[in-house]
Amino acid sequence: MTIDLQKVDAIVATRGSGLQNAIPVLQGVQEEFRFVPREAIKRIAEITSMTESQLFGVATFYTQFRLKPVGERIIKVCHGTACHVGGAEGLTEALEAKLGVKNGENTPDMKYTLDSVACVGCCSLAPVVMVEDLTFGRLDRKKAVKIIDDFEG
Ligand code: FES
Questions:
Q1: Does the CB atom of residue 122 touch ligand 1 within 6 A?
Q2: Residue 136 contacts residue 147 (beta carbons within 8 Å)
């Protein structure tokens, strides 16, 4: 994947170049590329007072930042307590089988990324899967697989 460094420059120009701006700058990079590419971090370090290690420190400390490319749709299976009790493990297994990937991986066509996350805050709907900003609740294996079928429909 080629990273357009001019886009990185523009993000720094609007969000600031001091260490206090590291989070908004990295958020801008992630909004643009859907993850924080290594090349972007290198570029930010070249044109600001922030160092690569400071930027990596911030990017790895906050779970909101992704350092690897992701698919067009991120499927987040909640593995918080209520969802775990409600069968989250089975949902992950069913989705792994459906997508042909392991948890944490992207499908080869980069359409989906399967991920497990901590409580997403709607435990009364457990077990829950989120696809981007859509929430699907009270799922079983079959319903979880149907989410993908409906997207593919
Ligand atoms: S544990 Fe899954 S939404 Fe809270």
A1: yes
A2: yes
119 lines ligand 1 (CB under 6 A): yes
- Cα 132 to ligand 1 centre (Å): 16
For the chain, the structural domain boundaries read 5-61, 73-152
pTM of the model: 0.82
Phi and psi at 74, nearest 5°, equal -95, 120
Q: How far apart are CA 134 and CA 72, in angstroms?
A: 14
pLDDT level of residue 153 (50, 70, 90 thresholds): confident
Q: Is residue 128 in contact with ligand 1, taking CB distance under 6 Å?
A: yes
How far, in Å, from the CA of 120 to the mean position of ligand 1? 5
Distance, in Å, from the CA atom of 98 to the CA atom of 77, rounded to the nearest integer, reads 14
The CATH number of the domain covering residues in 73-152: 3.40.30.10
pLDDT, tens digit (0-9, with 9 covering 90-100), for 29-46: 999 999 999 999 999 999
